[in-house]
Amino acid sequence: MTVFIIVGVVVIILLLAVFFHFVPFFLWISAKASGVNISLIQLFMMRIRHVPPSTIVNAMIEAHKAGLNNITRDDLEAHYLAGGHVVRVVHALVSAAKANIELSFRTATGIDLAGRDVFEAVQMSVNPKVIDTPVVSSVAKDGIQLLAKARVTVRANIRQLVGGAGEETVLARVGEGIVSSIGSSETHKMVLENPDSISKLVLSKGLDAGTAFEILSIDIADVDVGKNIGAKLQMDQAEADKNIAQARAEERRAMAIALEQEMKAKAQEARAKVIEAEAEVPLAMAEAFRSGNLGVMDYYRMKNIEADTQMRETIGRPAQQQKPEKKDK
């Protein structure tokens, strides 16, 4: 008998657990106490549709207490089933209503489904965000490099959150504006004297167009002087010109050496021919003696002419080129 009682109690407890799971009775009481009109059947149908009733009911209670009575249960369920964050959307709508920011439920759900944090966007609309840009390097017209760092104060643009560009685009545009402003300055001293001129020029370009933010101000936090880029470029150009000139000179030297070697080869060839011709002279003289075309007197006369010619050449040489005469021992 006792076993049957225990089994009966367990079965009753299990049935009550299943009942209160599919029919959240206490959640219905909480909703009724907060003034939210919802039935137990609707809560039961949420369980069947795999929608957590607590999430929907708590969101409806928060919206009702904040005076947002245009938000219905079907809207919240549809947004949850679409993969949205119901609690985040309701928080954003309540914050926007308290801050007098125009934000409809349809716009908030669209922003949330687009992957952006709509609650954070509303907070950024109330409290603007300060973004520090990385160090931007630019060169003025006098060739001096300047390293600038800016602080951009932005506010979320609710209307542009869907499809608008993010922080990376804003930072890139601000960096481009700083480079353009410094590059158009005649000297780097003008930039150092009036750094606010960069902010004015960058703000006048409307860099927040097409982005999810509205730029409130751009403040130049720091400007440092970098390298003399103009002088470095001139030095590099001079080094390049020197290398080109050295290459051309080396080419001309190589051509001159090749020409000299060619001339030496031709001179050696000519000397070889002269030696060959001189070697044939004694043979020709011997043949002339045998044939009677050359006499002894003609031979001595030729020798005298050679000696006379050699003496004239010796006399005509400079004194330092003449060989010293050998002294008799």
UniProtKB/TrEMBL annotation:
It comes from the Bacteria. The keyword Cell membrane applies. The keyword Cell membrane applies. It is a single-pass membrane protein. Keywords: Cell membrane, Coiled coil, Membrane, Transmembrane, Transmembrane helix. InterPro entries: FloA. Residues 308-329 are annotated as: Disordered. The chain crosses the membrane at residues 6-29. Its main location: membrane. Residues 235-280 form a coiled coil. GO terms for cellular component: membrane raft; plasma membrane. It is found in: Cell membrane; Membrane raft. Homooligomerizes. Belongs to the flotillin-like FloA family. Found in functional membrane microdomains (FMM) that may be equivalent to eukaryotic membrane rafts FMMs are highly dynamic and increase in number as cells age. Flotillins are thought to be important factors in membrane fluidity. This is Flotillin-like protein FloA. It comes from Candidatus Aphodosoma intestinipullorum.
